[in-house]
Amino acid sequence: MPAVPSAHWLPEALKARFAKPPAWQPEVERETSFSSRKPAQAAVLVPIVMRGADFAQSTILLTQRANHMSTHPGQIAFPGGKVDPQDANHQATALREAEEEVGLDPQHVQVIGELPVYVTGTAFWVTPVIALVKPEFDLRPNAEEVQDVFEVPLSFLMNPAHHRRHAFEWQGAQRQWFSMPYQESRLRPDGQSEEIDRFIWGATAAMLRNFYRFLVVNPAP
Asked: Which of 22, 47, 59, 188 is most buried per CB count within 10 Å?
């Protein structure tokens, strides 16, 4: 399968894609359920940070959840959470949660569309909200919820050569999931470089895989 050309994630190309979406089907829609809890509506923000003069260096902003969280502790995720009664819609939920979790001011964010709902094994019905983010933001991560915030290039995530499919038997059924292991190079406060392994998997990887499918099917000329 081909990588998505960088021309297809230019801001105007992405807006046009969501304004007139192709006929497509998400590759992954739900996980094997392993929770007896009542289903809950949720939304996540998929923040595309517009990097580079030509936007070819654009990234997706991700978080690493705090280790003490009751669900998915320590895992890599998009900013997001459960829909609150006061939220006008899923987009409002995603924007509110992103501001609460990492301090991303909505003035830097332009929502351009949504992907189909993804159902997690923990009974969250998650709507991925896709947004363009101006890079002038100043983040303030909430230490109660977020252990770290980082960015991964779209050129990495939209290349299926970096997508791994896993399968295993669990409670008498086969469970399949994607991962996208990424190694981040980061400067420490002392100026020395360090390599950090970012293991993107589960629901986050599945939604990224669906985003890839959305962009690669019937590509525009």
From this structure: 47
